[in-house]
Structures are given as C-alpha cells and as structure tokens.
Amino acid sequence: MSKDVVLVIGAGGQIGTVLSEALRAVYGVANVICSDINQPRGSVIGYFEKLDVVDAKRLKEIVQKYKVTQIYHLAALLSATGEKNPQLAWKVNMEGLMNVLEIARQHNIKKIFHPSSIAVFGGHTPKKNTPQSTILEPETMYGITKKAGEDLGNYYFAKYGVDVRGIRYPGIISYQSLPGGGTTDYAVDIFHKAIAGEAFECFLKEGTQLPMMYMPDAVRATLELMEAPVEKLSQHYAYNLHAMSFAPEEIAAEIKKHIPDFTVNYKPDFRQQIAESWIETIDDSVARSDWGWKHEYDLSSMTIDMITNLRKLQKTKAYDETKFL
Fold first, then answer.
1. ∠ CA 156-158-159, rounded to 5°
2. Does the N-terminal or the C-terminal CB of the chain have fewer CB atoms within 10 Å?
C-alpha cells in the first residue's frame, strides 16, 4: 500500500480537507499530494501543488512528477454556486473530469474516486426510499454535470478499463472545514450560529427533508469503497449512500436540547426550489450488500459530536478559520 501515490484534487474543500488527512493516515504523508486552485491559508502538511483542474497540462505535470497511482477528484462548483454561474459550473465540473479521466487512461492510473451527488435526482424521481437505479432528471447545472459524470465514469470503465468509483453523496456535515456552496450548507451553518449564541436564519423552509451524512461516515465510506475488490462492485460507480434525513426544524430541535436558548427564523430563498427537486430518503442497500457499508452517526449522535468539537475549536484560533459566514 505504501507504494501508492495519491493525488487529491480539491484538497482545500469541505470534504477534501478531512479526506486528505485520512489518506495520509493510510498511505503516509509523503505519498499524498494535495492540490487546489487556491494556496492554503495556513501551514501545509506534506506536498501541495497549486492546480486549476481545467489545466490539463498542469495536471499531467503533477501526475508525472510524483508518479501518481490514484486520484481523488473532488474539485467542483456545487449546487447553489453553480446556479449563479452555470456556464462556469459546466466548464469546471465537466472539463475537469474529462482531464482526469484522460490522464488516467494515458498514464494507467490504478483508481479514480469522483463523487456524484443526490443532485442527479429530479422532480420525477421517487422522493422516498429512492432506489439505486431510478429516474435521473437533474434540475440544476451541478446535478446535470454529476449525471453526465456518472455516464462518463461508466463509459471509461467499460471502454478503457479505467477504475472510476463514486458515491452519490448526500449533504455532508462537518466541523473541520467550510462547506463549498451547496444547498445543504444550512446544516453546517446552523451549528456555528448556535455555538456563537446567535439566532439562525434558514434559507430553507420548515418541512424540507433532505438526506444528510456526518463527515466521519462520508470519509470512511469513501475509503471503504476504494479498498473494495473490483469484482464485488455490481454498481461500481455512483452508489446511493444514506445515513439520516431531517428537516431544518428537526436539527434545530436537536440543537436546542443542548443549547436551549437557540432560535431559528425561516427565510427561504432560491435554494428552496433546488431542495424541493431533490429526494427525502434514499435506498442504499446495494452499497451495504456490495461492500458492507454501514453508517455510524444519526442526528442525535452527530449533534453531540458537532457541538462538542465546535466548543473546543471556539477556544482556539482555529475556530475563526472554520467558521462558516
């Protein structure tokens, strides 16, 4: 395992920050190359390379320089950000993925991880217990690029043998890093406001139930999928994954058990329409059968862990760097 060299693209993002740390624990600091379009604000652990993923030449330079064998491609414009500039979302999400797939084909990269999202579903998708194989009619540019990405990944696997794996991530909640412009971001911001003793203004209305997952489960699932023998993967790419589903008032009620004075006001904006096109609960039985996926955190245990860790961070300078504004 120590011979593998892993490139993380988008290492400065919400998932990339935590996943990079987990990968260093598995492969060693010297074997994990972090890259992002932005230079890190603080000190860097291990190797870092500045990379705009649409720059195919620069990507090739990095792959050759470090003799990369695996790529975790996380760079993307997410749902809410993508709707503000859909042309840029297409460019970053699709050209970036194509560059990664091509470099993998040309340089015999062993494995690629590229996440999909619940954004691939749409208004005609069954909203409850959404099956693995179902109607995909995304209603955002982000969702459109993720659906196309699923098709591209399957194509490159079938035609060229490029081992592309992925998960349809639900909303990801974490205390370590900032979210990156997604519709489920409220479920991170709400904790920061509660810890700061502030009221929270929610951009989704009450009753808007969405699938969510705590970061430790998301990272563990990613690593477990990548370590699974390829012959066990019936789906291979874009696995449904589920841990919990809740509406804004449910997470608010859970937080109030620990911070009784916390209050929430509801002021839906354009993200409400995005959320209403998504699903409420998801069937992940294929992932559980194929590679033994099992979540560990529910709403209650996640809330306790989030509050505990944010309170610890609040006492340090690090809190100012993670606070979502």
1. 65
2. C
CA angle 269, 275, 279 (to 5 degrees): 170
Residue 70: helix, strand or coil by DSSP? strand
Q: What are phi and psi of 123, to 5 degrees?
A: -65, -25
Do 6-171+215-240 and 172-212+243-280+296-322 fold alike per CATH? no
Task: Measure the CA dihedral 75/119/164/25, to 10°.
Answer: 60
- The helices-and-strands tally (H runs, E runs) of the chain is 13, 14
- Please state which architecture CATH assigns to domain 172-212+243-280+296-322: Alpha-Beta Complex (3.90)
Annotated catalytic residues are 142
pTM of the model: 0.92
Question: In whole angstroms, what separates CA 19 from the centre of its chain?
Answer: 10
Show the tokens assigned to 11.
Answer: 């290492």
Secondary structure (DSSP) of 257-296:
TTSTT--EEE---THHHHHHTS-S-B--HHHHHHH-----
Helices (H), the chain: 14-27, 56-66, 79-84, 86-90, 96-107, 141-160, 186-195, 215-227, 248-256, 271-276, 285-291, 299-314, 318-322
CA distance 113 to 264: 37
Could you give the CA distance from residue 311 to residue 264 in angstroms, rounded to a whole number?
A: 20
Report the C-alpha gap between 139 and 190 in whole angstroms.
26
Q: What is the tens place of the pLDDT at every residue in 173-198? A: 999 876 667 788 899 999 999 999 99
In words, the CATH class of domain 6-171+215-240 is alpha beta
Reported as a single tens digit per residue, the pLDDT across 22-61 is: 999 999 999 999 999 998 877 778 999 999 999 999 999 9
Q: Which residue ranges make up each domain of the chain?
A: 6-171+215-240, 172-212+243-280+296-322
